[in-house]
Amino acid sequence: MLSEVIFSTHPLHPVVTEELGSLGNLVVASAPTPEAILVESAGASIIVVRAPIQSEIFAREQKLKAAVRHGAGLDMIPLDAALAAGVLVANVPGVNAGTVAEHCIWSSLALLRCYPAVSADLHAEGWAIARAHSDHGRELSGRSMGIVGMGNVGNALFKIAHGGFGMDVLAVTSRPEALPDGARAASLHEVLSECDIVVLCCPLTDRTQGMIGNRELAVMKPGAILVNVARGPVVNETALIAALRNRTIGGAVLDVFDTQPLPADHPYLSLRNVILTPHMAGITEESMLRMGQGVVRETRRILAGEKPTNFCNPEVWDKYLSRFA
Predict the structure, then answer these.
(1) What digits encode the pLDDT tens for the residues 265-314?
(2) pTM: predicted TM-score of the whole model, two decimal places
(3) CATH architecture of the domain with range 97-276
(4) Which of the residues 6, 81, 164, 176 has an alpha carbon 20 to 30 A from that of 20?
């Protein structure tokens, strides 16, 4: 019987499940809830992270070697607790960047073509009323896009928007020298005031939390669309709801929210100028396999006593070695 317990907060791709099962005793949470994760992660050597992990798990689990993020963002892992406990943190960056970029494009297209209203009216009111919305549809080609955050997702999105749709792309980035040819560095104010589509794909930090509020929404073009595939708290929800209701902006594409799952009575659900998805922009069959295979590679390295390739807290290494010497 394999001695190492590999705990996952969610079910994984079948191929990944088989491969992790060959490395240890794979345990999958009965539900991705804080209660289930807290109890069922007991005895874990590796935690595969697709839901927030409580700090107390790191302090409690004496055999815990690493938390491996099934994806890129680290906001689900309490890094201070991992450092204090001598636990490695690794992630799998970039492998679903194209997936998220595709999501931004198709959802923006859907909103420009009035899909929420068309679909609802076709079901409830009939052909003619639904078809009338097409008079107000708009094309994506040739419009301008602002990308806030030029990491893996931002760069993948640029390629599709600029190369595929001929869009003029402005980018908010801390590294303007690294921008690809065809992208223009700009301030947040310039992006908001000039662009038809504004995509938020930046990490959630103290600086970006609440970055889009009443003042920022007020400078956007009347028909502009705000796309958030970053994290919910980057946008002030109260301000955005008001802007959508008042038609201050054209609409919003939202994949992330302050509270997840989205409450059944949330105001977003009553609006027709939004495309809502349940934090799935980076999830497809293909991306799940790629992310999972990255987790397998990192898990194999860690269990073999090696440093992870994508080592997110390298300052913990000496303490980690002292725990498992």
Answers:
(1) 999 999 999 999 999 999 999 999 999 999 999 999 999 999 999 999 99
(2) 0.92
(3) 3-Layer(aba) Sandwich (3.40)
(4) 81
